[in-house]
Design goal:
- The protein is an alpha/beta fold.
- It has a single domain, classed as Alpha-Beta Barrel (TIM Barrel).
- The chain has an eight-stranded parallel β-sheet with strand order 1-2-3-4-5-6-7-8.
- Strand 1, helix 1 and strand 2 form a beta-alpha-beta unit.
- Bound molecules: zinc ion (ZN).
- Zinc ion binds next to loops.
Length: 262
C-alpha cells in the first residue's frame, strides 16, 4: 500500500534536517511521495532546491492569497522562470482567502488572476486555496477552465454544495485531516462520499491540521506527512472503500494531475 501526500509545507531552513527525517519516517510507513507547496516566490525556490536533493518530492510555485499584497512587480516573471523547472508541477498555491483577509481582496483577485493566466501559458495545473470566497473564486476560475490543463482544490473544507460547484468544473479535490475534526469537519465528512473517484487526492497540509482522531494522541500538535495514511483510512471508511483501494486510486490520481515522479 503506497500513499501520496499532495500537500506538505516546507519548514524554515534550520529545520530541513528534521524535515528529511519526517519524510523518511513517512516513507517507512508507506507514504512514498510528497508534493511540497509554496506560498511565495522565495519559498518556491527553496522547495525546488530541496526537491532537487530528494527524488520523493515535486513542488508547486505560486503566491498564496495571504501574500498577495506583498508581491514584487516582477513576481509573474519570477514564477514563469521557476515553472520551467521540471520539478515544478503546478502553479500555486493561489486563490482567495476572505476568512482572514491578510491581503486586501482586490490584491488577492489581481494576483490570483495573473497566476491563472500563467498556468494556462505554462500548461501546468492550478493548485488552489480558497476560504470563504467561493463565488469570487469561481468567477475568476470558471472562464479559464477550458484552457487550463487541470485545477486542484487543495485542502477542501466546504460542504456538498461547494463540492458540487468545484466538481462541475472538473477540479481535483484534496482531503486533509480537517475531515477528522468532529467540531468543524462535519460538512466535509458528509461531502466526502460525493467526491468523484477519479478526482480525490489526500494531503496532510502539514505541519498544520493535525488529525484529531489519531490514537494514541501525538505529543506534538504539529502534523506530519506520515499521517496521510490515517487521513486515507478515515476517508476510505466514510466512502465505504478499503484503505488499499483508496491508496491506489488517490496515488494514481496524483500521478495523472502532477505527472509521474519517484
Ligand atoms: Zn493552503
Amino acid at each position: 500500500m503506497e500513499w501520496t501526500d499532495c500537500g506538505v509545507n516546507l519548514p524554515p531552513d534550520h529545520q530541513l534536517a528534521s524535515f528529511t527525517q519526517q519524510l523518511d519516517a513517512a516513507y517507512e510507513q508507506g507514504v512514498t511521495r510528497f508534493v511540497l507547496i509554496a506560498s511565495d516566490v522565495a519559498e518556491a525556490r527553496r522547495a525546488v532546491a530541496f526537491a532537487e536533493q530528494d527524488s520523493r518530492c515535486v513542488v508547486t510555485a505560486g503566491v498564496h492569497p495571504h501574500q498577495a499584497a506583498a508581491v514584487s512587480s516582477t513576481f509573474i516573471n519570477e514564477l514563469r522562470e521557476l515553472a520551467r523547472h521540471p520539478l515544478v508541477r503546478a502553479i500555486g498555491e493561489c486563490g482567495l482567502d476572505y476568512n482572514r483577509n491578510f491581503s486586501p481582496p482586490e490584491d488577492q483577485r489581481r494576483v490570483f488572476a495573473a497566476q491563472v493566466e500563467l498556468a494556462i501559458e505554462c500548461g501546468l495545473p492550478l493548485y488552489l486555496h480558497e476560504r470563504d470566497a467561493l463565488q469570487d473564486q469561481l468567477a475568476i476560475l470558471s472562464p479559464a477552465m477550458a484552457e487550463l490543463s487541470a485545477a486542484f482544490t487543495h485542502c477542501f473544507t466546504g460542504d456538498s454544495a461547494s463540492l458540487q460547484a468545484y466538481q462541475a468544473l472538473d477540479c481535483y479535490i484534496g482531503v486533509t485531516g480537517w475531515v477528522c475534526d468532529e467540531r468543524r469537519g462535519q460538512d466535509l465528512a458528509n461531502a466526502v462520499p460525493g467526491i468523484s473517484a477519479q478526482r480525490l487526492l489526500l494531503e496532510t497540509d502539514s505541519p498544520y491540521l493535525l488529525p484529531r482522531t489519531l490514537r494514541p494522541k501525538p505529543k506534538s500538535r504539529h502534523n506530519k506527512p506520515e499521517y496521510v495514511s490515517h487521513i486515507g483510512e478515515f476517508t476510505a471508511n466514510l466512502r465505504g472503500e478499503s484503505p488499499v483501494q483508496l491508496a491506489t486510486l488517490s496515488s494514481a490520481n496524483a500521478s495523472r494531475l502532477f505527472g509521474d515522479w519517484s
